[in-house]
Structures are given as C-alpha cells and as structure tokens.
Input
Amino acid sequence: MGLQRPVEPFHRPYAGPEPPAPARRPRRLLVLLVAAVAFAVAAVAVFLIAPGRGDGGTDRASVTPRGSAPAAPMQRGRVVKALPAPCGTVSAATVDKAVPNASKRQNANSTLTTCTYSSTGSAFRWLRVEAHLYAPGDTATPVQDAEGFYDAQWAQAHDAPLVRTITLERATGIGDEAYRWFKADEGQPTVVGQVTARIRNSVFTVSYSERAPSAGKRDARERACLATATAAAREVLAALNHF
Output
C-alpha cells in the first residue's frame, strides 16, 4: 500500500460581523429628531389657532369690543327689522272712538313714520302716532341707540318749552320702558295725553289732543286723554312686535 497523504487540517475562513455603517445610526436619529420637532410645531400652531376659553369661561374667539360691527348679528334675532305702515298700527275702531270722522295725513321712510288723524269738526282734537327705528343695517348697536333716544325724550319732557306739564310719570306694561305725560299747550286751549315707549330698537309716541276742559273737569279729562293714548299705544306695540 502506498503512503497515505496526510490529512491537512481544514481551516474555515473566518469573516466577523460587519460593523454598522457609520452614517446609518446618526441618520436615523436625525430623522426622528426632525419628526419630533415638526410634531411639536404643528401642535403649537393648532393650539394658537383653535379658539380657547379665557378666565370665567369666555370664548376668546367671540370677544369683540363693544360697539364694533360684529355686535349687530348678535342682536339681529331680537330687534324690530322694519316699521309697519304709518297709519296701519292703530285700529279703525280706536281711531273712530278717539277722533270720529277723522281725516289722516301720513309720512314715512325706512326709519321714521308719522300718522296724524285730525277731526273735521274740531281743530283741537287729533291723534298722532310717530315711530322711530334704529335698523340693524344702519348701526351696530340698534338697541342701545334706541335707549339713548328714549332717554333724550324723557329728559326733554322735563323742560319742554311752550307747554305746561300737569303730570309726567313712568309707566309699566308698555314695551321695554315707557312714560305717560299729560300737558297743556300754553298757546292753544288744548290738553294732550301722550305715551312714549321703547320696544327693543324702536321708539314710538302716541299723542291725543282735545280742547282744554274747565278746571273742575281737568282730572277726569286727564284720565280719559291718557287712557285714549295708552289704548292706541298698546296697538302700536302689538304691530311692532310683528316686525
């Protein structure tokens, strides 16, 4: 037998694990950092844009300075939007009772209407209705403007020229606020019972005039004049509530 060739030891080639690419881990970290910063920026932007609530639960987005234009839509649902026809607020029965066989004269625009019923038999007997409107389309504060006009009328009644005030007092149950005024005309032998009232953004006045009574009948005529003006004022109020 021939000599056997010695078995040479088998050396397995060794290849250790490849080290990670030097740039791989820093790049992944950079991506994560960028994503985190972007998320934080987006969260801050959403917080700043979304309406929050301030102290006392007030919605910051709804807070506007008083008297600014956005105030009008908030009042629009509870204001008088238009005036009725100038001679269409008092019923024919009420007019006939106050001024029988009356002739009428009227004027109107979008913010002021007047209607005067005059007796054909007496120059001193008449019924007059006047209505003022502060329209939401003309002012951002229609109710406040009407309040100011009503207050001015009330103040002027205390120092009216050419009339002698017999009684002047506030009244309840007619609109948001009202007063009743019984006065005598210094230049004419007439007395006038007047009711002025405000309903939201509208102010109206009803005046009823007749010949001045004798001194002994003045109290009775005062009550009658003011009752006539009040009855007509309630009908005007009902008409405005439909507008």
